Amino acid sequence: MANEFPALSGTIEDLAAAVEKGDRRALARAITLVESTRADHRAEADALLARLQSRVGTSLRLGISGAPGVGKSTFIEALGLFLIGRGHRPAVLAVDPSSPVSGGSILGDKTRMAALVRDDRAFVRPSPSRGALGGIAPRTRESVMVCEAAGFDVILVETVGVGQSETDVAGIVDHFILLIAPLGGDELQGIKRGIVELADLVVVTKADGAWEAAARRAAMEYTSALTLLEARGREVLTCSALEGRGIEEIWQAIERRRGRPGMGDALAARRREQARAALWAEIDADVRTRLRGHPRAAALLAKLEHDVGAGAVTTGAAARAVLDALLTPEATPRRLTGRGKLP
Question: What class, spelled out in words, does domain 55-262 have in CATH?
């Protein structure tokens, strides 16, 4: 694909225009911008997203999660290539573990999707988790929006793969797919309710060779478990991403779910709720950032951390005092004697 924007310099308007034309280097730069934690970059990222807003919200957003070794990258590549064959333009946002040296993405997922990476009709972007515990990076939602503005109509968000706590992805996608490996032991324990109850579709992977029979048994046991959890309407399927079997059936299951009566309104409501949740997450993050950069509040916090640790002040009283210093900088700090002390 020819690059229409070789220098990638200029204004936010220039960058937005290049993203809307599908320029891949501009898209990569835009995602780097929205992922940045620098204050000046955050302002530019907000301006970019505002400029792209009219092109946002048109794609299908799929979340893919599962424990390490379940075959997430292999599955996503097989699904991505299948979608290309159906005329779609998939984008993959693969959340990688962060490098302990540079803090950047280790890039493991991108190297495991070589065929998809080479196809100009797809876009694969690894992003560092930066220590986030919910399986996705702090700005994955904004990265999804930028990919939509660039014309990609199916966005696949792959979680970092650290276990059963990766539920944050369900808050930024339309459909959440949980991958399960056969012989993983979960079917013998019952079920990991937290993440399974959030999944819209459960897929048992590696249904080939010596593992095929085990995969089918696991699928039957998960189907029974979901019935006990009253998770009606959620399917359990098997696939062999390595051999390409089961991928079409999974896509058909996604389309069936999308085509259910009232699902369009339900997805619209889901996205509105996701936007509200993102607003509060942004407020929480911004309060923490401003607190650290506010000399008076930061100094008070340092003292109160000591006092709380010593049992001299309750955590609630200390937190309110710090917020008072941050939000009403001219006010006299509340006294933490008496009622602030632990009994």
Answer: alpha beta
